[in-house]
Every structure is written in structure tokens, then in C-alpha cells.
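In this section we walk through a basic example: taking a raw amino acid sequence and producing a predicted 3D structure, encoded as C-alpha cells. The instruction is simple. Fold the sequence below.
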Amino acid sequence: MNFDRNTVLGFVLLAVLFFGYFYYTNLEQASYNKAKARQQFVQDSIAKANRPLVDTVTAATSIAKADSTLRAAAAGYFVAAAQGVEELQTVENEKMKVVFTNKGGQVKSVILKEHAQYGDDKPVTLAATNFGRFGYALNTGLNRTAPSAELFFSLKGVEKNSDGAQIISFVLASADSSFAGRITHQYTVYPNDYRINLQLDIDSPAQLFTQGVMPFLWQYEALKQESDIAYEKQNTQVGFVEDGAFDYFTIGNRSTVDFAKPVGWVGVRQRFFFAALEAPANFASGQLSWVLPPDSTGSVVRTTAAMKMQLPAATRSSVNLKFYYGPADYAVLKKYDNEFGKIVNLGQGAYAFVRPLNKYVIVPIFDFFKNNSMGNIGLAIALLTLFIRLLISPLTYSSYLSGAKMKALRPEIAKLKEKYGEDQQTISMEQMKLFREAGVNPLGGCIPALLQIPIFFALFSFFNAEIALRGADFLWANDLSAYDAPIRFGFTIPLFGNHLSLFNFLATATSLLISVYSMSLSPDQSNPMMKYMPYIFPVFMLFFFNSLPAALTWYYTVSNLITLVLQFVIQNYIIDHDKILLQIQENRKKPKPKSSWQEKLEQMQAQQKKLKDMQDKPKR
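The resulting C-alpha cell sequence is shown next.
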């Protein structure tokens, strides 16, 4: 490969895109840090304002009694449900254990059987914090309202259908015969599924909800599940479908989104796990808000969805809702016909153009290798790398062939520069004629490199979103979804971190070897930019890839090794440099018709040269 100005142009464009991507990522991180600091200030201020002057057992008891009295008063016709004993009921299928509570007739926690917590063998548990709850405000009497989440429902037991589905029911009813309001929560847990169906049967909805508007409140707290909570927060998003269209926000970008149009679902994805509340008949309107707790709490984000649904004017109404608590696995989520799959970042925002490449090429091929590599994810990545390099091998060969052709023309280009001196306009025109006569495309060396850029961004998204990498060990890395850190410094280096990723070091070293080998095939460069440009990307990689997933840096290590082998074989055994020189000589003998673009370009260059000559004439 020869580093002429067109190849350098390719490197420059590549570097600009890389820096642009990481600049965009850093803006998101800065926004996240700003939002976190702002929310921490608000929380500290509230805590300080609410700090009691005296904290005694007597005061705490008095407050508890007062709260109990207030709850009983607010419960109105449902006063018997204001006090009770919490009862738990577990329903499980092949994928999860769902723990239900009679307090609020709601899900208390979800245990995922096939996914372990980071650092131990305990299964991942979702929706298991005191912050998490689901319910709605209901009218309990004249000028009285109470949250359903604080009332004790009657547990009616569990039934099992012939199809394996399990149904658990909770009932909230008044003991006063003059009040007909009654609500039943009927949950259905299906076999081999992460989605839980909820049917609410409501008697006398006009008594329970003002103007037939049912105000739902769903609170969800995502706890830390990965080794690096800061990186987990960077890859956490809230998503929703409004008016039939999917949209999302990274949690650091803002803290609230208002819905004025019908909403199909709202949810939060914390990199590898996803929780959502879905309304097949749509919520009429609502708001989704979130806060970022301090990293030390082990909480990634707390979200609150306040949604409204208009009930029909009838003596009895039914509302169907669905909950999803499970992995953010594209293979699982795409099966639901509700845009769930789009919450998995296979290419979003400015980089949505790589999503088809991931969906239709990288994901299926990786799944094939994953299923046929005996569970060795590192081997599957190596096979994926080999497949991609074979796929783009025509581009690689074209790039090396173009470099060989440009190298053959260098002596004549040098003569043009010697003949015309500093007259760059004339040199440019003569070079274009030379390229046309020789049948050489001057952009042939950089275009193949630019066409590989989408592959980089596709893989960057894929390796951050593929749940199969989570907890997968390979060589010295114990989790391919996070950076490998066999060497830790005990201190932090700016822009680098407190560790050395060995896969990143190998990727950087092999990138430098590629540059050294390529430069050894090129004539000496007098232009310092051309001389040092090939070494910029490896240095860039060393710093900015050090904290990226080990899967990505392992991919680049394998890819670079393949490149070195291909480069040596193509240059020494496939490309015949003498044959290329003879071909160029034969091409120059053939008449070359000019395209309209070439004619316009030469006319423009001629006009520019004429104008320059006129400007320089008085000086002479």
C-alpha cells in the first residue's frame, strides 16, 4: 500500500469520523454527568430540608400511627384494605420466577433463571426494590383518593390452563354494599416467556375514576448488573412508542418526556436488561421521567411513568396491560410485534444507517458461529472476523492493486513535479491526464477503506448490545462485554484509565505492524503528514479503546493479524508488479474517451490556471 495524498485523504476522513463518533459519545457522557450532578444537588437539598431535629423511637412511633390513621381515612370505602399482612405468591415458568404480593396486587420481583448477577452465581433479579411499584389512584369516597399500591388485595390463588399458562388473581372490594366499586387484577404467566399479561376488570368505573380517566403509575428502578456502573449508565436508555413510532433517550440527555399522543409502551433498557409497561389499546397520554442516583447506591436509574387511559362509559370495564421483565436480547424482543427490538442498540441516532448491516449480516452470522463453536464466544468472534475479512477481501485486493498502480506511476509523477516546479495547477492537470491515459483511479486506494467504515460502527454497536458476550470468558478476559484488565495501575491516567486492556494493547501493536509494513513498501515521503499519518490511528486506538468491551478489541486483534497475512500474500504472491507496469503501458497506447465529468473538470482546471496566470503576470 502506498501512502499518496489520496490514501492520506482516506485516513483523514476515517479519523474525522472516529473522532466525531467519540466526540458525540463524550457529549452524551458530559450531559449524563451534568444531569447526575443536578439531580444529586436536588436530592441533597431535599434530604437536608427534611432532616428531623430529633430522631427518637417515640417520634418514629408517633409518625407511624399518624400515617396509619391517614391511610385508613384515605381508604374510605376500602378501609378494610388499608391494613393487612403481606402475602407473597411465586409463579414460575422455564425463564423466570415472578413473585407477586397482595399489597397492591402487583409484581414484587422477577428472578431471571438464565442470567447470573455479575461476580456470583445468583440469578439476576429485576423490579425488586422499595422504589418499584405499579398502581393507580382511585376514588374511595367523597373527596377521598388512595393509591392502589398501598391497599391490600385478596389473593384468590393460582390456576393453570391446559396450555401451561398460569393465572393468579387479586381482588379489591368494598365491604359496604352501597359502594359497588370493585377491581380484579388477573395476571397470566405464559410458558417460556418473559412477558406477563395483566387484565384489570373494573366494576362501576364511574365511582372509582373521575370522568372515566384511569391514572396509572409505574415506578421501576434498574440496579447495577455489570462490572462498570458508569459504562452501564452510558448504555442505558428509556424507550417508548408514541403514535405508532419508536423513540428513545439516553438517560443523561434529559430527564422528562411528555406524551400528548397515544402511547403503546414505555420502558427502560440498562444495556443488557429491559423492563417495559405495554398497553395494547394505548395510553391516551402521560409523562415519563427519570433520575440518576449516585453510583455508590448501586442504582443505574429510577424511572416513573405516569400514564392515563380513558375508560369507556359502562358499568363494567376491562383494561389489558402487559409487563416485560427480561433480557435486552434482540433475538427475544424482535418476536414481539410492538417495536421492542428497536430498543436494542444495533445502530441508533446518527448511526442508524448501520442497523440493517447488523440485523441482516452480523447478527445472523455471529449467531451461527456462536451455536457451532461449542459455547466458546471468543472463537465465535474470531470466526466472525474471518468471515467479514473474506467478505471484504475484494475491497482489500482492490486497495492493494490501486496502491501498486500508483507506485508504478510515481517516477512519472516525480518528473511532472520537477518539470513544472511550484505550478500546482499545471501539475494537477497533467496528473489527471496521466491517470486517465494509464487507466488508474487515483481514489482507488481510499474508497475501499471508506467503504469499511460502516462495518466499524456496526461492530461497535453490536459488541455493546450483544447479550451473549455478558459473562463470557476467553483467555484472560472474564467478561467479553467489558474491558479486560489483567494489569491495573492503582492510579488513573487521563484519557486512558486505571488499567491496561491487553487485547487493546495487542490490537494497537498489530495496527502499528501493519503501518510499518505498509510504509516499508512505499518510497520515502518528504511530507511529514504523509509520513506519520499511518501511525495516528494506532495511537488513537490505544487511548480510546482501552475501556471498550474486550470483544471489540479482540476482534481488531484478529482482524489485524489477518490483514498482515493478506498484505504479505497479496503483495508477494498475487500482485505481479511487472505485469501491472506493462498493463499501464498498454493502456496508455489506447485512445481514452473523456467523460462529461472529466471534460468539465479539465475545463475548470484550465480556467483556474488561466486566471492564476493573469494574476501572476503583473508580478513578473
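Looking at the output, two observations stand out. The longest strand covers residues 299-310. The radius of gyration is 32 Å. In the next section we compare this with other chains.
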